[in-house]
Amino acid sequence: MNDDQNRNEQIPDTLTEKLREVASKTTILVPASVDGAVLAQAKAHFVQISRERSKILRISWLAAAACVALLAIFGIRHLEHGRYERADIDHSGHVDILDAFALARRIQQGSQQGVDVNGDGAVNKADVDAIAAQAVKLKRGV
Amino acid sequence: MAASDRRASLRTLAEHHDPRSDQELIAAANAGDAGAFESLYFRYRDWVGGLAFRFTGDRDLALDVLQETFLYFLKKFPGFVLTSHLKTFLYPAVRNLSIAARQKTRRAQGDTPMPETIEAPTPSGVGPVNEVDAVLSTLGQEHREVLLLRFVEGLTMPEIAEALEIPVGTVKSRIHNGLARLRADERTKNFFEK
Amino acid sequence: MKRAWLIFIIFCAVKLCGQELATSFRAVDIFIDSGNQALAAYQLTFRGTNGSVKIVGIEGGEHSAFAEPPYYDPEAMQKDRVIIAAFNTASADQLPSGRTRIATIHIQMQSGQAPAYIAQVSAAAGTDGKRISVKVNLVERTAR
What is the extent of the structural domain holding C100? Predict the structure, then answer.
């Protein structure tokens, strides 16, 4: 429904005022006691929500502590995985001695194209050794 | 109503003017801010009360419906998602609770339960307030509601359709028919003349 | 009396020999045959298959290109599996071709069991880094 259709039926302001009077004839004054009753219920409801959230928070702290421990383990694995992927020089899908060999040949040929696998800011034999070490690591052995 | 109650009600309303939008208040209430819900209550209290009175025709019933409506709204937190105007959410709640309240009253009085309908008895002691009201009273309440929601509450046709749970085409038709009646009636045709 | 001493000496000799046989060492030579292509890089896995093998040492090969010990994971020592790998960026004429011993793995055997092990090549390449097809075989020597 676009705005043009919404504005299809327009009425003069004077008629709008008359319609407001029609609406206001059913206005009732709400006593403060009714306000109090509704707001008291609201307060109780939000207090209950707050209590439940606190309970969840306490449980969350315990869960968080467990997660930190797990992250310490898996985080290291993830770092290793990251290095693993960067070290796949020939993009074969896995890291083996051929990746170390490829990088060694590039370095020997004087090429600057390479991957700083060990993060020391340089691409050199240390990176070649790092890739080779990764290739023969028993956990990721081919 | 006692004058003191009137003054208390007005004072409370004034004290609770909150510049935040409905969306902001709802977000705050979802986050656990009871004050935000309080602001929403005062913002829509009189509208809900008036609507409930239109549907029930009885002030005491209307106040009961008002409380039940806001209790129903309260239980939506946390997690309430406002997808359009808040009135489109509150309107069917008020209507349905009003119908239920009237049925409960009639059963208590031993009357035959009336079918669910939006039509409400004319509030006692309240006649037409002006010529427009007099003409609209010849139309069904559904036409009056649509005109009030459109030109007084400012809801769009899709919002009215959602609130009344009727097709948009029906909304357009009722608006058209209502205005046509006003244009045709001697008492109100002058509003449309320049 | 003389017979008793003789029996005692023979008994001790047998006992000593038995102790030596309970834990023995072997050297396993690993040969790769690359045919007429120069071998520039290789990677293979060596592992025991009957639970009686422990890897205790690794040496380089016979050709100068692979004389240095290959890359391997130190964690493999005292275990029954190891991955070894090596490469050389020298030109083809300075690399081995045909059958060549690329490494020797020293193993410790347990309780007189016959050793059982295999080797599987996972990568081999020529001077251009491209993979080549090779054969591998193992020859056992007795450690002195």
Answer: 24-142
* Contact at CB, A11 and B53, closer than 8 angstroms: no
The answer as to whether C19 is a domain residue is no
Please name the residues between 86 and 115 in chain A that touch chain C, using a CB distance below 8 Å.
90, 96-98, 100-102, 104-105, 108
ipTM of the complex: 0.81
For B150-189, the pLDDT digits (tens) are: 999 888 899 899 888 889 999 999 999 999 999 999 999 8
Please give the average per-residue pLDDT across A105-130, as a whole number: 83
Contacts of C89 in chain A (CB under 8 A): 101, 104-105, 108
Q: Where are the alpha helices (DSSP H) in chain C?
A: 2-22
Distance CA A107, CA A116 (A): 12
Domain housing A69: 12-75
CB contact under 8 A, B144 and A22: yes
In CATH terms, the fold of domain B127-194 is Arc Repressor Mutant, subunit A (1.10.10)
Quote the CA–CA distance of B21 and B28 in Å, as a whole number: 11
Question: What is the tally of structural domains in chain A?
Answer: 2
> CA nearest A142 in C: which residue?
C122
Is residue C64 in a domain?
Answer: yes
Residues A43 and A67 in one domain: yes
- CA C69/CA C103 separation, integer angstroms: 7
Same domain for A71 and A95, yes or no, is no
Q: Which chains touch A (3 or more CB pairs under 8 A)?
A: B, C
Does C74 reside within a domain? yes
Nearest to C102 by CA among C85, C115, C90: C85
Residue A7 lies in a domain: no
All structural domains of chain B with their residue ranges:
8-122, 127-194
Structure token digits, residue C1: 């009396």
Any chains having at least 3 CB pairs less than 8 A from chain B are A
- The residues near A44 (Cβ < 8 Å, ≥ 6 apart) are none
Residue A66 falls within a domain, yes or no? yes
Instruction: Show pLDDT as tens, one digit a residue, over chain C (144 residues).
Output: 767 666 666 555 555 554 444 557 788 999 999 999 999 999 999 999 888 888 988 999 999 999 999 999 998 988 999 999 999 999 999 999 999 999 999 988 775 667 789 999 999 999 999 999 999 999 988 543
From chain A, the residues in CB contact with B49 under 8 A are: 27-28, 30
> pTM higher than 0.80, yes or no?
no
CA distance to A19, B92, B129, per residue, from B125 (Å)? 19, 26, 11
Indicate the residue of A6, A21, A32 with minimum beta-carbon distance to B9: A32
User: Where does B8-122 sit in CATH, by number?
Assistant: 1.10.1740.10
